[in-house]
Amino acid sequence: MSEKMNKYIDPLSDFGFKHLxxxxxxxxxxxxxxxAIFEGQKHITDIIYGPTEYGGDEQDxxxxxxDLLCTGTQGEQFIVxxxxxxxxxxxxxxxxxxxxxxxxxxxxxxxxxxxxxxxxFLIAILDFKMKSSTNDHYLQSISLVNTGTGEIxxxxxxxxxxxxxxxxxxxxxxxxxxxxxxxxxxxxxxLGKIPEYLDKxxxxxxxNVSEMSRLTPEQRFIHDLDQQxxxxxxxxxxxxxxxxxxxxxxxxxxxxxxxxxxxxFDTLKIVQFTKLPIEVxxxx
Length: 284
Hints:
With about 280 residues, the chain is α/β, with parallel strands linked by helices. The protein has helices at about 15-20, 25-40, 90-105, 175-185, 200-210, 215-260, 265-275, 280; strands at about 45-50, 55, 65, 70, 75-85, 120-125, 140-145, 150-165.
């Protein structure tokens, strides 16, 4: 029996994320998502998509590539990233990204620039838990604060980290708009129809845009290639995990053999307990 095909794309894949949130035809989806993320802190009414690759003033100044970059009506900028895998320098990379946007605001050729900055934010949808995260809520909001008083030092620069693995609410437990967005992101690919709770027009549009049957042949090719890469990478991770288990078992067996030799156990008895070759034991 052939595997059942999903009705909707994976919004957490590179293709699915950019298909939904990137580009002028779907900018209302991005606007709705940003407003849910900021939860009343900001109200975005319109955005313009910008270039996702930023260079520097000098040839050897490293270029950076964002997943998506958009600008609001007040000039505020939003980097929106989808990150499926954790890495040790992720926080540093986020700071570097915002610093590049801040640097780009410098008025080139003007000697009397007064350092007035427009707001910059980085929003990251994460398919992993951040090591530095200390609470259980799935949305981490980071800004510059006075560590002595807890007061905001500068509210025009900040990070929003959406940690999807921390979200475990069921459909009947959703409390606000952000809950609905996160539930949609986590479960859309496995759903067979639009859930009843998503009655807003924006969610209806998201599911319509996400139908596999609506993709062009070119889009379907990119989608399938993206999925194949994800599966191949998962196979690599699984293999590394298995290899790690085997390595761990070997190290335990070697340590046990050493201790047994110190206690003058018979070599054949050590072989029986550790399953190590007698040559390995004799060389310890």
